[in-house]
C-alpha cells in the first residue's frame, strides 16, 4: 500500500507494508537517519517526529496511517542551511553529549515552546519526561532551553 | 608531570568552555551512528539466544531455517573457526589462581544463562532473518541452575563451570584489626545490598561489516574498544592485520560497550557470505544480553574513636559474576582496593569474592567495582557520625586521606587530596535548608565522598599514541584511535593540540577510532582517555612544535627558545613573525617532517600482592563529595530529591563545560542506581527487558545538579588533569541514603531505595 505524507515540507508517497511503522519507513526506506531507534515501544523518545506539529513516537505510528499529515524530522528545522536558535543553544550550553537523544529532545522542546513560550525550569522538565537522556543528567538541556526562551522573549 | 602548572590566564583554549565540534554535528543530526549506515547488497543479521538459564543442548538443527527464502547463512558453534573468546587477568593473586577465563562465541553443548547466543542468521531482510531464527530447531534439556552467590559457593551447588563457582578472591590485611576495635569508642556494623543494573545507553549495540576493496574485513561498530579487532581475528582465524574496526561516535557506552558486542558476529557473517552485513540489537535484546553491573552483598564493621577517627575496619564483599567471567576479577579488584574509602584507616581486613551463577553475566560498568563500595563505606561513615554526634563534614575531615598516606593495599597517595574542601563545598552548595511543605513530610541532608581510580591498573602497562600533522595551509590534523563515547573525548584532544600549536579550534580536524588508520589509543574505559590520549596528544604537539620552531629559527635567524607558535604564526620575542604556511613550506624544502607520532606510556609496575600490602595498583585517583537534600513522605515512603550538589577535584578542567556535564550526568545515573533502577531476575529469567519495566531517570525525576568543579592543579593527565568519566557515579546512592537517615531517622541498606523499602523501614507495614 501507499503511505502519503508531507515530509519536511515535501509531499511524498512511499510503497509500504501495512505493518511498517513510520520509523521503519523513514530510516530503512527513505534513509532519514536523523530519526533514531531506541526502544521500539514509545518510551525513550529518540524516534520523536512532529506529526502535524505534535510530538509523536514514530515507532508507534503506522506509516500507512499518516494519511497525508505533515511529518517533521530534525532536518526540517534547518533555516537557510543554518542551525535553528534552539539547536545553537544546545551547542553553546553543552546540552549534547552522546547526541543520540538530541534530535527527539529538540523536536519535543520546540513543540512544547509553541504551546508554552515562557515556561519555568520545572515546566520544561515535565515537558521532556518522554525523552530519555542517559548522559547529561538533563541540567544542561534545561539550561539550553531556558536560555533560548530568554533570548526568544528578548529577555537577554 | 614535570611541567609547571600553567595558569588559566596563560591558556587560550585549554581551560575554556568551548563548544564541541561533535555537538555541532549532533544537533544537526549529521553524525552517522553505527546503525545509520547502509551498503548496497547488505544482509541483515540476528542472533538466536537461549531461553533458559541452565540447560544442555541436546539437538540443534537448522536445515529448515536455511531453506527459508532470503536466508544467506545460518551459523552455529561448529561453523566458528575458533569458538573461544578469552579474558586474561594478569597477576591475579587470589586463592583461585591466575585467570584465563573463556567463553564460547556460540554455545556448544550447554547454555549457562538466559540470552546466551546459540546461532546466527543473515538474510536479505530482517523479517526473513527473524523467520529463520524461529525455524531453527533446538532441543534443550534443562539442568539445575544456581542464582544466588552464597548458594553458588555452598557445598553441593550446581557447578556453573568445571573449575568451581568461586571465580576470584582478593584479600587485604593491614594493621592490627583486633587492637583497633579494642580501642574504639564505637563499633558500627552494617550489611548492604546492591542490585543488578544495566548501562541502558540509548543507542543499542549496532554495526555494519563488509569485506573492503583490499580484502580486509572491515567492521563499523559502536564500541568503546576498537582493539577488539584482534579478538575478531582470533575467532575468524585470520591474521590480525586482516581485520579493521572503525569505531563510530557512540550513543553512550558506560562500560556496556567495553566487551565485544556485535563485532564478532558481523565479522563471521561477512567472512562467510562475502557480503555487507548489518546487526542492530533491539532494546529487549540489549537489556537481555548485555553484561551488567555486579550486584554486591557487603558486610562492614567499623570502629572509631570518640573524635570520629576510624581505627579499624572489617569488610566482606560478595559479588555475582553471572554465568561468565568477563571482567569480574578486575571489577572485584577495584572494589577491594577502594573498600575502606578515601580515608586513613590504620587497620583493615577485607575479603572479597565473586561467584559464578546462572544469572546474566556482569562486567564493566561506569565505576567498575569502585562505586558499589561507596554505598557501604559512606553509609558506615554516616552511622559513625550519628553514633558520635559528629557533623558529616567534620567526620570526613578527620579521616580524609592526605598526600603521602598509604592505602590499605600499600599504595602511597602521591597527589593532592582535596577531600575536606570538596565535602565543605558540596555541603555549602545546598544553600539554606528547605522547610518541609507538609507535616507528614520530613527534609534531611546527606553527604557522601568517594575516590575512583583513573587510568588502568599499572601492571597492564598502558599506553596511547597520537599523530599530529600540519597541512600546507596551516590547518591541523589529529589522528588518534580514541573512541568517543559522548564525553567529549575527541574534542578535548583538539583543544590540547590547538593550544600547543597555536592554531584556532576551527582549524583542527580530528580522525578517531580506526584500527587501520589512526594510531592506537587503547580503550575508552577506566576514565583513562583524557589522561592517556591527552598526554599522547600533548607529547606529539610539543615535539612537533619543537620541529617546526627549529626551522623557523633558521628563517628568522633567532633562537628557537624565544619563538612561539600562536595565531597561525611563529612569533619572535622582538615581534617579528612568520605566517605558518611559510614555515611549513620551508620544512618541506629542508626535509623536516610537518607531522609527528608520539606514544605515551603510563608509569608501569609489577603485580602486587594485595594481601601483604605491597604497592601501587592504580596510577592515581579522582576524589569527590556529593551532598543531597531530600524530602521523605512519612505516609508513603516516597523520596524526592530537592537539591543536589556534586564536587570533584579534576586537577584541571580541560573543558569546564564538558567536566560539568560528566559530573551532572554521572550524578543522575547514580541517582537512578540509588532510587529506581533494577534488573529484576527470577531464577535466571530477566523480567525487565524493556524501557517500560527497566526504569531510568527522566527529566521530571531528578533536580538540577550543581557541579562544583575544583581544580587543585594536580593530576597525571595533560595540564595536570584527572579523569572524570566514572567518579561522579559513585556517591549518589549513599548521599541519598544518608539524607533519608537524616530526614526520617531510618536507614535503608538495600538498593534501589524504593518508596516501598522506605515505607518498610518507617514501619508502615505490619511485617
What does this structure look like?
The complex is a heterodimer of chains A (156) and B (767). Chain A has two domains: 2-77, Roll (Ubiquitin-like (UB roll)), CATH 3.10.20.30; 85-152, [2Fe-2S]-binding domain (DNA polymerase, domain 1, Orthogonal Bundle), CATH 1.10.150. Helix content of chain A is 33%, strand content 15%. Chain A contains five helices and five strands. The radius of gyration of chain B is 27 Å and the shape is globular. Helices cover 26% and strands 26% of the residues of chain B. Chain B folds into three domains: 8-31 and 463-601, Aldehyde oxidase/xanthine dehydrogenase, molybdopterin binding domain (Aldehyde Oxidoreductase, domain 4, 2-Layer Sandwich); 43-143 and 205-280, Alpha-Beta Complex (Aldehyde Oxidoreductase, domain 3), CATH 3.90.1170.50; 296-404 and 416-457 and 607-761, 2-Layer Sandwich (Aldehyde Oxidoreductase, domain 4). The chains are: A alpha+beta (156), B alpha+beta (767).
Q: CATH class of the largest domain in chain B, anyone?
A: Alpha Beta
Counted by DSSP, the helix tally of chain A is: 5
Strand content of chain A: 5-15%
- Rounded mean pLDDT score of chain B: 95
Summarize the main sheet of chain B: 7 strands, mixed
Instruction: Output the radius of gyration of chain A.
Output: 16 Å
Show unreliable segments of chain B. Answer: 1-5
Number of strands of chain A: 5
Keywords for this structure?
heterodimer; A: 156 residues; alpha+beta; Ubiquitin-like (UB roll); DNA polymerase, domain 1; 2 domains; five-stranded mixed sheet; globular; B: 767 residues; Aldehyde Oxidoreductase, domain 4; Aldehyde Oxidoreductase, domain 3; seven-stranded mixed sheet
